[in-house]
Specification:
Chain lengths: 404, 601
């Protein structure tokens, strides 16, 4: 057992939903609310098991600007789902108490995903704040009610706005809203109008995802059978460019392919409003994942927990850890992932970061590939880092696939 | 000793889907050759491809023991053979090893084009034919009518026609009796020096070439040293045996018997189908009549997607050739595709099967170009050259005349589709030859039509325009002078030799336009704009533009599930491997076959 551990990021999965959205293929379950109590207890057991195994956290390293590195990140705890806001406050408290010995909350970015459709009374949001939660992420997805219905969302645009404002009034100064573009029936003009409307909300952080039709979802079946149409690649490309232009012009800094943070005093290589938890993924850091189907990364291993809720609960009683699968990683895997995750960031992959993470200079492994991509105009580099060009950002997959 | 009088060698011949395979399965069961426990459908079709497609590709043999009503036990050798027109040469080989043939006709469909072709082949081989109506249990069956048709069209007496439902086992016992009664025993001579005909073969990694033989004269023993008369190769046998239906070793094979020999030979060329096996110590004086080698009709380039797999492809073709005598191949080089082989096939189905077998059995990723036929080109300097690759067609200025192969096709169809068939055939440069009524509702139509037109999509069109009712057979009728031009395709300004095709001048413009339109849809968007053009000589006749790819990035957040992101990238990369880089454009395999499906949409 290590007396100290360097794991500073923790994802906790809450797989419950009131209903499943038509586009969602995450590990989520509707109509299982009666298991919530038992599930939270199980999470407590898993977290305790990890704590026993890992020991106590190392002291925080000193940040080393200006090159973006893992050490620049705050410790993070992220409650994602599913719908974590379905948990009553005492259960949230129970989860956070179990997390604290692994990632001490007082230094951490602590995010809870909230569904604007879950009745957000001010008390609930204030309660979250009182428990040490300092960041809220809401899946608004669209401000067009008919589209929200097609997506199977349980909220309206008006409810989303009210939820957002209540979160503000509850004192949250770091609020992210998720939106999807390329939705059925959506046009670039509608998207543009919605972005302009949202500027007035003074949101701290945007995550904008292009719709991906996942094979197992109802929406996929509707689109492939021709009952519903989604915009073509040219239109979604246009929407993406609109977002870059409109948000960029309004003081938001794009720091990752899908993420924008409101410019704030004190912004450095990492914007103050950026999501440090997601940055941990993009910097290919180690992180724990707890809860049904949650993924964790402790190089040289990756794992995920048992998917089904009841199996998960049972395993926390019987097994040391409720793992479903462990994947062994090679140094080559580590290098590839450091590249294709890191290049998603506008800051790119800094040379010190690559060397720090992979133990070898970037050009030793990728010199030729990088030169080729640079010649194609997809990458740029300076003495500090390699990063996608504006064109490379539109064609990211073409770049990323060169590393796998 | 050998009781030739107790041997019967026969084939089952049928138009595709008339129930030949089901009937074979039933014979194997009733004779106890396979037990109920071993039973599975399509017993003789061992290849995965055969099971998937529900067709027989290779000829095969099986030995059955049958105790007849006279109390005697007979050895029946069933030599199975394919029904599709592409494989008629396999049928011919199988029939040469038999004394009789069971002709299966669907009791509701009646005689089809392939039925006729098969009967002619059986008659050429002097076989006793037992006509059988199958599927008599189906509601649409009209056995009396079809029996009359058989008498009228084939000249086989209606009262000799057996009635069977292979599916339900009805009439199968009676058929076995008829096989014993009507088909003559083999007439080879026991005391003569050994002569055995090789009618098929396959390669076994441990036992080398396994030849399927039918002994005509003399006796073959497992300890013999044999001489292959055609190649003059001498070899000590590793094993001899019969098919029951798996290969089962035996000590000797006598006149009329069918079995296999394991030669240990590693070289394909040393043991050829059609050759005669005799004994090294006491060779026969004259070889048996062999086979006319099957003549390839359709040619296409086969290229490895990964250029370093060229050697693997060569080895695979060499192995496959052993099992598929009709396949021909010669190395060729394409500016667009690199090194590959020009392969000759019997038809499109044969081509598809060869490709699939190479990919599955030899684990190759292949790219195949659009099929072409073989043209005779008279050059201005008086030379006559053969061109089976459109990109090798000389410049227009050097061509005096081009001749193309023409087929005679036979189509049997209900009369109501005559108009539709006429329209199809004339649209494909065909000319009418004759119409013969088989009965008031059905006719036999004959046309002459260029092979190049049949190769494209004729069979599919025929089936769709006649709702599947028409059947087709064809044979080479000769060559004819035609006004043909070479149509070139340019991708990103560069001619792609593998996309060139030969077209008739009158239809070349339309084909060019359709082809570039199709290619625009098939070639994925690249990182830059790509023009696709069709040209005759230096004249551009059609152009389409593939717009540059605007966006290709995975924006979705899969949380910490990096594995999933990675798998998506790997899948994308894998998809690209199936494409060929031509210049700096990625062209998917389907694009090279686009010309085959121009009329699809």
């Amino acid at each position: 057992m290590n007396p100290h551990h360097g794991v500073r990021h923790l994802y906790i999965h809450i797989p419950f939903c009131e209903r499943r959205c038509s586009y969602c293929d995450f590990n989520t379950y509707a109509n299982m609310e009666d298991r919530i109590g038992a599930y939270v207890a199980a999470l407590g057991r898993e977290l305790a098991a990890w704590q026993t195994r890992l020991g106590s956290p190392e002291p925080l390293p000193a940040p080393q600007p200006p090159a973006l590195m893992r050490a620049d990140l705050k410790p993070t705890v992220f409650l994602g789902g599913g719908t974590p806001s379905m948990l009553p406050l005492p259960l949230i408290e129970q989860v956070l108490n179990a997390a604290d010995p692994i990632v001490p909350l007082r230094h951490a970015e602590v995010t809870v995903e909230c569904n604007p459709g879950t009745l957000l009374g001010r008390d609930y949001l204030r309660g979250l704040r009182a428990l040490g939660v300092n960041r809220i992420s809401m899946g608004v997805q669209s401000l067009h009610d008919p589209t929200l219905r097609i997506l199977g969302r349980s909220h309206t645009a008006a409810e989303a706005r009210r939820s957002y404002e209540e979160a503000r009034r509850a004192g949250f100064d770091s609020i992210n809203l998720d939106f999807i573009f390329g939705l059925p029936g959506q046009t670039p003009a509608q998207w543009e109008a919605m972005l302009h409307e949202l500027l007035a909300w003074q949101i701290d952080h945007f995550s904008l995802y292009s719709l991906i039709l996942e094979e197992t979802t109802p929406l996929y079946a509707q689109v492939t059978s021709g009952r519903m149409a989604v915009p073509d690649d040219d239109s979604t490309g246009e929407m993406y460019e609109q977002a870059i232009e409109i948000l960029g012009g309004a003081g938001y800094r794009q720091y990752e392919i899908s993420n924008w943070a409101r410019t704030s005093p004190g912004d450095g290589v990492i914007p103050v409003r950026a999501c440090h938890h997601n940055l941990a993924y993009w910097l290919n850091a180690d992180y724990l994942g707890c809860g049904a189907g949650a993924h964790g990364h402790l190089y040289p291993q990756r794992y995920f927990d048992t998917l089904a809720i009841d199996d998960y609960i049972r395993k926390t009683h019987t097994d040391a850890l409720p793992l479903a699968e462990i994947t062994e990683l090679t140094p080559a895997d580590l290098a590839a992932e450091t590249m294709f995750m890191g290049l998603r960031l506008n800051a790119g992959v800094s040379l010190p970061h690559f060397a720090d993470r992979c133990g070898v200079a970037i050009d030793t492994i990728y010199g030729a590939v990088l030169a080729d991509l640079e010649a194609q105009g997809l990458l740029e580099r300076d003495s500090l880092a390699v990063r996608l060009s504006a064109r490379g950002r539109m064609l990211g997959n073409r770049v990323f696939e060169r590393f796998v | 000793m050998f009781q030739q009088s107790k041997s019967r060698n026969f084939s089952i011949i049928a138009h595709i889907d008339h129930g030949k395979t089901t009937l074979s399965d039933r014979l194997l069961e009733i004779t106890g050759t396979i037990s109920e426990r071993e039973r599975r459908d399509q017993m003789l079709d061992a290849m995965d491809l055969e099971r998937e497609k529900g067709i027989t590709i290779k000829a095969k043999a099986v030995h059955m023991e049958y105790t007849a009503a006279d109390g005697e036990t007979y050895g029946l050798n069933l030599i199975d053979c394919p029904g599709h027109v592409d494989f008629s040469y396999e049928v011919g080989r199988a029939l040469a090893a038999c004394e009789g043939a069971v002709l299966v006709v669907d009791a509701s469909q009646g005689i089809e084009a392939q039925t006729l072709a098969n009967v002619y082949m059986a008659l050429e081989n002097d076989l006793t034919i037992i006509p059988v109506l199958n599927k008599i249990d189906l509601p649409g069956a009209d056995p009396d009518h079809v029996a009359q048709e058989i008498e009228h069209v084939l000249g086989l007496p209606a009262e000799d026609v057996m009635r069977v439902s292979a599916k339900q086992g009805l009439g199968v016992a009676e058929l076995l009796e008829a096989i014993v009664e009507r088909i003559p025993p083999p007439h080879g001579m026991l005391e003569q020096p050994l002569r055995a005909l090789i009618f098929d073969s396959h390669y076994d990694p441990y036992k080398g070439v396994i030849a399927y033989i039918r002994v005509v004269d003399g006796v073959l023993r497992s300890s013999d040293t044999i001489l292959l008369m055609g190649t003059q190769v001498e070899v000590d046998l590793l094993e001899i045996g019969t098919f029951r239906p798996v290969m089962t070793p035996t000590d000797e094979l006598g006149p009329g018997e069918v079995g296999y020999i394991a030669t240990g030979l590693k070289q394909i060329g040393e043991c050829q189908v059609g050759d005669t096996v005799t004994l090294a110590v006491q060779p026969a004086t004259a070889a048996l009549p062999g086979y006319r080698p099957a003549k390839p009709m359709v040619f296409a380039g086969l290229y490895p997607v990964e250029s370093n797999a060229y050697g693997d492809l060569r080895d695979a073709l060499e192995r496959l050739k052993l099992n598929d005598a009709a396949l021909s191949y010669a190395p060729e080089k394409s500016a667009a595709l690199g090194f590959g082989f020009r392969c000759g096939f019997l038809g499109l189905l044969h081509m598809e099967i060869v490709r699939e077998r190479l990919e599955r059995e030899y684990d190759l990723d292949l790219l195949i170009t659009a099929p072409s036929v073989e043209y005779q080109v008279l050059r201005s300097n008086g030379d006559i050259i053969t061109v089976d690759n459109p990109s090798e067609m000389p410049d227009v200025g050097q061509i005096e005349a081009i001749e193309e192969p023409v087929m005679q096709i036979s189509v049997i169809t209900p009369t109501r589709y005559i108009g539709a068939i006429m329209e199809l055939v004339t649209g494909k440069r065909g000319t009418f030859e004759s119409l013969e009524h088989l009965d008031p509702q059905r006719v036999l139509l004959k046309y002459r039509i260029p092979l190049a037109e049949i190769v494209i999509d004729f069979y599919d069109q025929l089936k769709s325009r006649t709702q599947g009712y028409a059947s087709l057979d064809y044979t080479l009728a000769g060559y004819q002078d035609s006004d043909l031009v070479k149509l070139d395709i340019l991708v990103n300004g560069q001619p792609v030799d593998a996309l060139s095709l030969i077209a008739h001048r009158d239809t070349a413009y339309g084909q060019g336009r359709q082809l570039v339109e199709k290619l625009r849809r098939l070639i994925p968007r690249q990182m830059f704009e790509v023009p696709v053009q069709a040209a005759i000589g230096s004249k551009i006749i059609a152009r389409e533009t593939i717009k540059a790819m605007r966006k290709d990035v995975l924006s979705k957040c899969y949380g910490g599930d990096i594995t999933r992101k990675r798998k998506l990238l790997e899948k994308q990369k894998e998809g690209k491997k199936r494409m060929k880089m031509v210049g700096n454009v990625e062209i998917p395999q389907e694009a090279f076959m686009a010309v085959l499906s121009l009329n699809d949409d």
